[in-house]
Amino acid sequence: MTQGRFGLTVGPLLFNWPADRFADFYARLADEAPVDRVVIGESVCSKREPFREECLGPAIERLERAGKRVVLASLTLVTLERERRAARELFAQTQREVEIDDLTLMNLLPQGAPFAVGPMINVYNEPTLGYLARKGARRFCLPPELPFASVAILARAAAGFGVGVELWAYGRMPLAISGRCYHARVHGLSKDSCQFVCDRDADGLAVRTADGTDFLAINGVQTLSHKYANLAGDLDRLAGAGVTSLRLSPHSGDFIAVTRAFARAAAGEIAPREAVEQVRAAVPDAAFTNGFLFGDRGAAPLPAA
Amino acid sequence: MTSPGSLELVCPAGTPAAFRTAVEAGAHAVYCGFNDETNARNFPGLNFSRAEMADSIGFAHRHGAKVLIAVNTFPRAGAFELWTRAVDDAAGMQADAVILADLGLLDYAATTHPALRLHVSVQAAAANADAIAFYARNFGVRRVVLPRVLSVQEIAAINRDIDIETEVFIFGGLCVMAEGRCSLSSYATGKSPNMNGACSPASHVEYREEGGDLVSRIGGFAIHRVKAGQAAPYPTLCKGSFEAGDYRGHVFEDPVSLDAASLIPQLAAAGVTALKIEGRQRSRAYTQSVVRSFRRALDALAAGRPVPAGELRALTEGQRTTSGAYNKTWR
Amino acid sequence: MPLNLVARRLASSLAGRHPALFERLGEQASKTFVIDPTDLPFVFLLEPRPEGPRLVAARREAAGAWDARVAGPLAALIGLVHGAYDGDALFFSHDLVIEGDTEAVLALRNAIDNEEIDLVDEVFAPLGPLAALVAAPARRLAALLGGLTGVALTRGAGGSLA
Q1: For chain C, which chains pass the contact test of at least 3 CB pairs under 8 Å?
Q2: What pLDDT is stored for residue A192 in this prediction?
Q3: For chain B, which has fewer Cβ within 10 Å, the N-terminal or C-terminal residue?
């Protein structure tokens, strides 16, 4: 169900939502969201995985029954023994594609198995893209910090390998990953006894500067941008550059409405300005940017259409 | 596994003068980069022209020291030749190794210069035995610089599982994020460690007196506010003072720097081959005292004497140090 | 020797003996720096143009327009030039204050650090063979001053941090 010029992918939920909210989110996604692919699973913190175990299977089944293509997410930073084991287990199943987001998984990948490349893999140039494509990468969600000029070159190179490139089109962008848990730190806890305080912030905890300016958001060991990427108004030039799909990252607010706005914009049914406004209406409190691609920095405000 | 006595001291040089200083102060190896965006310390007034690099390599080799050339940013799409030229020139100048992070560039170097020794940069954030095995198997790399997210126990476990050398940071600036996977700087200023070799660049730093306080900003974001006359650390983004919920302070990391001198014996026992000092952007004065001090420490260790620690505090940011992730409680 | 003559000599010596300094500065060589020894009644204006660098002393209030200012005790500034002190360490401890174009200051600091400059040598270098004659007493005077200010005014061999 490719929406006109682009495939739509829902990225893995980055936040530690409680099990019932998690289940509801994916149920609605299955039933109502006009998207093709859903990447699902824990990509931020392995400590959260036990809470997900029970609801992950049913969510995958429901998505697949609804005709979505399910791709399994993997951890962004793999250090512990059990995390390596979990990564190995991802490849023990063969019916679903895995999205790697740490090169650790390249050592565990069965020979010739197809895979997808996530946004935290450093794909900055054509030879790196080509190297991974020859190893079986089928789709690249490019690093959010890439400027448009690089995206255009990489999209051309990807077409030559018969693989697609995807951009982080909606949601707070992952800016960093750490061994340290900032949620635990600001609550005066250690990572090993974190009490899962990251579950208190459905979209991450706002980090403001000393003079009160919104800057970043923390999500456990992950640091995100305060601003949400919103490329709904840029689809013409992205299509022109050969970008093949768009990643929408789950947030609170009316996420289904966000997916619909992108689907309409992707199909050319609404004008760019209208697309941006429809996304804004779904998450009225979010600040938007397309600064990494088109501005002088990632935090640059979205230019008025 | 190396014996404790044979730990290699890998020292930074941002200028030819600092390079000579490091060698004379007892560096076993010096790491440095060309004066362009191919290396992760692409700062104004820093780094080596081709001629300076060739001269410096000659100097090091005459003094029995090795030279490791960092080509450790991620090549820009459409401009790969700038990076391959850096690797070609390093090989041509008889560098003892190149330090690389990018998959495409590793592939190029392994294919084009099979005799050139390859090290995996900390910018590649290879944080476990599988990631390291991937680089070893596919590119024949001989050493990996471990990211600053690992504890000593984890480093020991990695060394048991791999058959290439490991190098770890022992002193200097401390990345709190996994290296090579951080775009905070790019978000705030448009200058990226991965693409431009610049983090929290001075070009975007601004100090201003505001109501009796000295406020430092980067990319317009206020990072520190101190009473005028108090020490104001350089506004590195991840070391800033912020608000998060009810918390006021250093959300990511205090303005501390790494000093793991006291852990040298444990790191040696964990099978580490080389200890790395951060600070290519620091002065000759820094290079000289830090390199001397660590060389003394390694010589003491080799002779079975206790390792002196803490004497370098005046050289560190904000005058405070941490042993970082090497102690698990840091997390 | 009048201050501005010393400053002029220093500038022309740098141009003649340290061309790499200007190469290293790159585009930052077009900036104007104020070097402000806070314990003295005047400041230095530095325009490190490769084609003809200029260094003049001026009263603090008559310094005019500048891009970057580095202020601190004379001892710290000289220690920085001689490589006896680390600029970052001085700055972290607030012995040095930087204002304006931080990138330009950083480039200047890095470029100077590479040149292994000895201020007494630089000032007397233009005298050619006569330099040795004049430099020796100057060096003694400098050593005396160094004793008073706690910093070596000549670079000496193997100076290191306390």
Answers
A1: B
A2: 85
A3: N
